[in-house]
Amino acid sequence: MRTTLPVRQFGTTDMEITRVGFGSWATGGGGWAFGWGPQDDDESIAAINHALEHGVNWIDTAAIYGLGHSEEVVGRVLSGRGAADRPYVFTKCGLVWDENDRMKEAIRSSAPKSIRRECEASLRRLGVERIDLYQIHRPDDFGVPMEESWRTMEQLIEEGKVRAIGVSNYDVPQLRKCESVRHVDSLQPPFSLINRDAAAAEIPWCNAHRTGVIVYSPMQAGILTDSFSADRIRKMDADDWRKKSTNFQTPRLEKNIALRDALKPIAARHDTSVGAVAVAWTLAWPGVTGAIVGARSPSQVDGWIGAATLALTAADLDEIAAAIDRLGAGSGPTRPPSPKFAGASA
Fold it and tell me: CA-based diameter of the chain, in Å?
């Protein structure tokens, strides 16, 4: 689809993606182990379409989100659009749920047969002939050789079912194993002002190897937004996974909110939102191609779409790094390297 937003080449693939993409984790709704509570499908579709109308040209989903439901909702969005209007669609495999117990945590399986079975199911739910980016969601827990799983992913490209392949939540040794078999087109790590660990190793490795990076949870699941408050946690639905997350509990919560507050002067200077600043910070790191940003309504899209065109200044980055150091929030490197020092080692 055409877009008026800035784009970047996605690794070595032939895709050029906008700096922000629509994340459809919450689109899966509630009633499963890592849901965000109840979510209206029509509201999800309105949010996705709103993002696309504002120029976002890719959607990230996964089979596990709502145990297939998120992919079905994304499929409804795609079915209402012509080929020229269709965004890139990224999804994932490797998390297999128990059909008899929706609240049971999924197992991590990257067995070739499972990958193939999941791919066919995702193609069916999405209503597409080819997935633009297919990712292994998390490393396998059953001793399946990583090289074996990666060869199966490569075969899906050769068979025309997948355009590009990537991984999510992999570390550098695991990335190297995959790269020895076939180039890793992309990595999807968690990355935000609070969870900065990927900037120490994985993102530099990807930058050095021309592997695209699309980061998830750049607003730390809502903490780094203008409207977040401790009271909001109390009002979350019982099956909202965030209620169990340490970042939403004392003592981390107070530090995280203080860091959010430190972004307000920067947002005011740029006439934008705190959420847009938080997302733009992740995009300032060399090697990061795009950020996956979720929304449950069109108005939430409006809260972060400005990040697609926002360039933080060196002074902004210094101010943010100073706030992180002062507050002791999160972990990992605190500032992107200056351009002349942005080269990465293998």
Answer: 55
What is the spatial distance between Cα 268 and Cα 215, in angstroms, rounded to a whole number? 25
Q: Which residue has the tokens 């997935």?
A: 131
pLDDT, one tens digit per residue, over 60-91 is: 999 999 999 999 999 999 998 988 899 999 99
Q: What is the pLDDT of residues 196-237, one digit of tens each?
A: 999 999 999 999 999 999 999 999 878 898 888 666 777 667
pTM score of the predicted model: 0.93
Cβ-contact 144, 136 below 8 angstroms: no
> Could you give the angle at which helices 314-327 and 252-262 cross, rounded to 10 degrees?
160
- Class at the top of the CATH hierarchy for domain 16-330: alpha beta
d(CA 339, CA 346): 18
- Tell me, rounded to whole angstroms, the distance of Cα 118 from its chain centroid: 20
* For the chain, domain boundaries: 16-330
> If we measure between CA atoms, which residue out of 147, 122, 117 comes closest to residue 134?
122
Tokens read off for 346: 């293998």
